[in-house]
Design a protein that fits this description.
Layout lengths: L9 E5 L8 E5 L6 H15 L1 H7 L9 H24 L11
Length: 100
């Protein structure tokens, strides 16, 4: 909210993140410029960690479904069987355990 004239200048930030309700409110003091009020508001928002949390949750990935987990597991098992077959035929060298 921003009022000019006799009414106070109030900046507030509520519910940037739906799971976390945090209020940040700044009122303009006597003889304080609009720029300094904005600067103070930005500092309070950054101290509360609202923007960091919102940015962190921006690209959150959802959990894999049971079907997707099963499909990926079957694909890895097929690949493993194929590689074991090629090793038995001598077409590829067996891999050693670990990195050396």
């Amino acid at each position: 909210m921003l009022w000019c004239g006799d009414l106070p200048l109030i900046w507030s930030c509520v519910n940037l993140i739906p799971t976390m309700q945090t209020n940040v409110e700044v009122t303009k003091k006597k003889n304080e410029s609009n720029a300094s009020v904005l600067k103070r508001f930005g500092r309070k928002v950054s101290d509360a960690g609202l923007l960091q949390a919102a940015r962190k949750n921006r690209f959150a990935s959802r959990n894999e479904s049971d079907y997707t987990k099963k499909k990926n597991k079957l694909k890895s098992l097929e690949k493993r069987e194929k590689i074991e077959g090629l090793i038995k035929l001598g077409k590829i060298a067996p891999r050693g355990r670990g990195r050396k």
